[in-house]
Amino acid sequence: MRRLALLFAGGAIWLLLAAVPVFADGGPHMSSINNGSTGITADSCAGCHRAHTAQAPAILLEEAPALCLTCHGSAVVGATTDVMSGVQYELSTVPTEVRDDSAILGALRAGGFAQARIDSGNTARLAYASSHGTSQHVLVPVSASGQAVTSTHMDVTGLSESVAWGSGAISATADPGGTTTLNCTSCHNPHGNGQYRILNPIPSGDGGTFTAAPADASVADAPPPAAGDTRNYTVIQKQGTQGDDSTYLLYASQVVVGGYADTVGDYFRRALPWDADTGSSKDAPNGQPATGTFGGNAEVAFNTEITAWCSQCHTRYLTDPAVGHPQEVPTGDAIFMYQHGTTRTACTTCHVVHGSNAQMTGVYSATMEYPGGAVAPVGDSRLLKIDNRGTCSACHDPTGTTEVGTYIGPEPTPVVP
Amino acid sequence: MNQAIGIVLAGRRHRFAGAVAGVRRPLVWLPAAAVIWLLLAAVPVLADGGPHMSSINNGSSGITADSCAGCHRAHTAQGPMLLAAQSEEALCLTCHGSGGTGATTDVENGIQYTLASVRGDTVLGALRGGGFLTARIDSDSPARILHSPLRSLAKVPVQAAGEPVTSSHLDLAAGVSATGVAWGNGAISATPNAGATLDISCGSCHNPHGNGNYRILNAIPHGDDAGPFVEPTTGVVVTDAALPPAGDTRNYTVIQVPGPGYLLLSSQVVSGGYTDTAGDYFHRRVPWNSTTGTSDAPNGLATFNSQMTNWCTTCHSRYYSDDPTVPSGDAIYRYRHDTISNRACTTCHVAHGSNARMTGPYSATAPYPDGSVPAMADSRLLKIDNRGTCQACHDPTGTIPDGALSGPTPDPLLP
Questions:
Q1: Which of A61, B181, B259, B380 has the fewest CB atoms within 10 Å, i.e. is most exposed?
Q2: Is B405 an interface residue toward A (CB < 8 Å)?
Q3: Structure ipTM
Q4: How far is CA A20 from CA A56, A68, A193, A226, A227, in A?
């Protein structure tokens, strides 16, 4: 009996202790809850599922993305992130709410599915001397208000089959990529999984000719937020010291305490600080800008992992790190023959993942065909962050006429942490 | 990072004069009215045209360029340097070729069209550079008014129809091959060194992104060299005329008048009522028949000849000469016709391709500087049949009276 009592007391203790999440998820999307490791008493299942009265496959309350938008949509309060408008709100102090819809924290890194706040026509660029001659610092600011998107990763109002451009192996005959229907859960595991943004290590759509990747691509996440806090999902970032997570703006509370306006931040995030000639760091929304051992932990650079993850679907966009100048070396693919390198430039440097409001008004950019030549909607921005092909001009001056120190962009210079 | 797209400049930069509004130089501060730079930065200050606008492509008028998408694909490129076509030539010819409609200049046939929806149906005139497939150089009908000493006046007219070229700077025409050698490249050499083997393309000479130079010439032309091409270390600027106003384009033809008119713009040629066979390919003087005529100035500047020769000799180094009587010390290029004043390279040679006929036994078989004999009667980009180029200025017999006109009847018209 005494032994049983001890066992009971210990069980209560571990229940309490095990409530500390060890995986990097948030809200109800906590793998430590949903996988049962903190006890077989999860409540979050009932947030989305009905065992006998489900209205959608996978015994969901309703189909995704509508289900997801009940919390992550525009006029709701179940999550701080509004993926439709591309903003994150501050945490609410009202016990029954998560979102304080009167206080915007900042603009989401991914843009939005209906609107985004990318100040795509006001990129700032500063020329500096580098080992390549003259190089460019770049910053894409945040707009004060949202603008309708001109490209999205999926149409949340009506899912349809689309092409995963570049999926599949190198092909000497024209193959733009497999088709599939994307949903929120194609990329995100709503149950949590310890990954950055709960990304599925093997993203996959529904049906079509698309073939999922054979192996995982993990993207490490920062430690979970403390109770009462949430992650910072915005473009408001600062350079930190790798190995010391407290030096980054990983959590919403840090952004609030820092007093940053909701229009602060850099959508481009090629370097932090954006205008440092030396000593800058790469993008690190998870506190891992570089590959190496930090604080006793082996870490892989965020840019490397996220690019590998994007390439799980957009396979042929990934360039071989062993090829120094992929723009000069043919791949053998009929469509994706020469590639902009992705070793030094992550996918997320040039593209957002949810939706972009960049304007494609130029005669060439507005009518750019899809890979393989299929006609694209006029003005499709391809999830780029800058109007027309300002994405190219942001880093490159092929005329060789820009002097070191030349600044081009809005005045005053956009504010970043 | 500036090198990744299009032309590799190897870190070379071109300084341009003048401030573009909205472009802050080091330590310069602009007013806080943020939209001012957007409005003012629309003023282009560099001399380019069409999508080849450096003020657009260098970002100085805003980081929103559209023109990149005219030629490049980030992920689906078909040619090196992320080109949308399989090669530079193929890409350029989509607009500048005989079947292109994207530019007024047809470099394959050596003509410029009038500006009407970019390329109209009316020929404006013959291009100064000749053409890569055909050219309209009336190479067997030059006119000459002999004046001594060395003051002869000559004109090479334009003919109504194109003829296949007999020499070209690029391998585009069937049966005509560029030699693949940068003749005269390199330093003076006491041992024979004809020049370096070199593959060139459109981008070797021209910067398609614009750069402010005449004909967007690269200050340091380059190619893919099998070696040992000696690339100059200092760039050569060939100053360009002011940018044409909106709705107009430059005059790239041989139709010129002396200053102040010059006929720098296509609209001026049209409004002047000149026929498409007007013009002088020789353009040693403008007008051709006046001893007081000015030098060639397609950019409206008296410095053109010297700058142009300096540019050509960045590759053809040992062709530069200011005195034909002084031996250079070079084993091959020992004595060289002078290339100064109005004896510029472009006086005797076209840059793209020539249809001049080398039918004489000597001209047809004149060896290359390395001693090799061309497979065909190579005109060496000269403008006149055989060695009429010599006679255009010289009568070494001393038997032609001063002022005598030789050439077609009726006299070639002006310009």
A1: B259
A2: no
A3: 0.87
A4: 32, 25, 15, 9, 9
